[in-house]
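step 4 of 6: structure.
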Amino acid sequence: MNCRECTDFLIDYLNGDLPAAQQRVFEGHLELCPPCLTYLESYRATLALGELVRDEPAQPLPDALVHAILAARGLKSKAD
Amino acid sequence: MAERSQATEGAADEVEFVARLRAGDAAAYAELVRTQGGRMLAVARRLLRSDDDAADAVQEAFVSAFRAIASFEGGARLSTWLHRIVVNAALMKLRTRSRRPEVSIEDLLPKFYEDGHHVDEPAEWKSPGQLDALERQETRALVREQIDRLPADYRTVLMLRDIEGLDTKETAELLGVTPNAAKIRLHRARLALRTLLDPHMRARGTS
């Protein structure tokens, strides 16, 4: 396995989808190739940074929008 | 055990709440909009990056949800069901947008020599887990900015899978592609985002 192939397999490796024999070859390459190990860590970090975006706290819906949504269904909100 | 009975109680409350919605209870509708709307607006804003479009998508999502509440099955949580509806509404809006000129995905993928070795030696990154509150806020803004630089098809698949947490099958259905095509596109989107984040995330002394 070379670095290009190792990069191609990252998603399956992290999903646990690599067949056992292929996983051994993949991990064998990582043991011998510090650049690929560093690349794997930064790929993992990219996923962790995505979670940062997902975890952004939600703000309450603006009142005007609440009113518009309820009005669209012919309902009145309590604030009216 | 306490946790379990709380969960069971929560589920029972939800069944009762859904029954009120089905019966056309106006107070239940208002409660639904107030309790779920903020989260739905955050989802629409993330996908659309425009407050006006996001507000429209949330409004359209609630209209769809009110219409479809009779077909809501208790198998999923109400919040999960609404999440899928607002994602769908936002995707419909994204599809109607004219495309801006975008960078080619090939330019953002890692480069290799003919023998398969990396052209640019990968550098170590700062650990996302070690960021303090202010750094987290700044980094969140940076990641959003870089996600927005991805070509549209790649941005969408990454948003659906890695940010909104949909599984590959659901993502593939929404995009009208096979699960394998969605997986390959996601992998390329992640590689491209990694390239865009790399200059910003390198640990001190390695850039």
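step 5 of 6: annotate
 - Residues 3-72 of chain A form one domain.
 - Chain A has a mean pLDDT of 90.
step 6 of 6: archive
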